[in-house]
Amino acid sequence: MINITFPDGAVRQYEKGSSALDIARQISEGLARKVLAADVNGTTWDLARSINEDAAVKFLTWDDVSGKSTFWHSSAHLMAEAIESMFPGV
């Protein structure tokens, strides 16, 4: 088991290897639908990445500047891949 500390100071235990999305689902299905990424120990992580040690976790949603920034960054990569597939060498 690993200890996850939330921004409000609450600490809960989860299975080692749980992802941020797994944890969000256990808290609330509504949260799981809203979360875009997670701040894990001060670093932005993909929701599917496993958390294998004690960590401080903050869920990033559209309501957070970091959540919007992560969404826009990921969207830019997807758009670039689409353009490159349509116009090779661009």
List the SSEs and their pairings.
Elements: E1 2-5, E2 11-14, E3 18-19, H1 20-27, H2 29-34, E4 37-40, E5 43-45, E6 50-51, E7 55-60, H3 65-86
Parallel strand pairs: 1-7
Antiparallel strand pairs: 1-2, 3-6, 4-5, 4-7
Number of helices: 3
What form results from the Cα inertia axes? elongated
Secondary structure: helix percent: 40-55%
Backbone CA Rg:
15 Å
List the domain count as a whole number.
1
What gap, in angstroms, lies between the N and C termini?
A: 48 Å
- CATH class term: Alpha Beta
Name the CATH homologous superfamily: Beta-grasp domain
Q: What is CATH's topology name?
A: Ubiquitin-like (UB roll)
Total strands: the figure is 7
Task: Provide the structure class.
Answer: alpha+beta
- The poorly predicted ranges are none
Major beta sheet summary: 5 strands, mixed
Describe the strand arrangement of the main beta sheet, using strand numbers: 2-1-7-4-5
SSE run: EEEHHEEEEH
List keywords for this structure.
five-stranded mixed beta sheet; Ubiquitin-like (UB roll); 90 residues; alpha+beta
Describe this protein's structure.
The structure is a single chain. By secondary structure, the chain is of the alpha+beta class. It has a single domain (2-86), classed as Roll (Ubiquitin-like (UB roll)). The protein contains three helices and seven strands. The protein has helices spanning 20-27, 29-34, 65-86; strands spanning 2-5, 11-14, 18-19, 37-40, 43-45, 50-51, 55-60. The strands form two sheets. It has a five-stranded mixed sheet. Strand 4 and strand 5 form a beta hairpin.
